[in-house]
Amino acid sequence: MSWQNLYQSCLLETDPAKLEKLVFELEDAIVLRYHEIALEPKRSDEEPALKQAAEQLLKLKIERLGWADPAKAKAHFDR
């Protein structure tokens, strides 16, 4: 499944257990695609979409799965 299809599946999934599985799959797919793009001789127009998907993925983890917000965790430890 493409990262785009996984991304859409994550946005639509309502079952937290299924969403968590999709989140891990999407993370892997995004990283793999970034690596593929890095090997391409020409810069890909896909990079902004990958970045947006990665940012949305973090938001899904925090808001829908209840994971800790890394920005708040860092601020907590910086005190």
Shape: flat
| Total tally of structural domains | 1
* Cα distance spanning the termini: 43 Å
Give the fraction of residues assigned to helices. over 70%
The tally of strands reads 0
CA radius of gyration is 14 Å
| Low-confidence spans | none
Give the SSE order as H and E letters: HHHH
What's the SSE blueprint?
Blueprint: H1 3-12, H2 16-39, H3 47-63, H4 70-77
Helix pairs in contact: 1-2, 2-3
Structure described in brief:
The mean pLDDT is 90. The protein is mostly helical and 79 residues long. Helix 2 packs antiparallel against helix 3.
What does this structure look like?
The protein is mainly alpha-helical. Helix content is 75%, strand content 0%. The chain has helices at residues 3-12, 16-39, 47-63, 70-77. Helix 1 runs antiparallel to helix 2 and helix 2 (16-39) runs antiparallel to helix 3. The protein is flat and about 40 Å long. The mean pLDDT is 90.
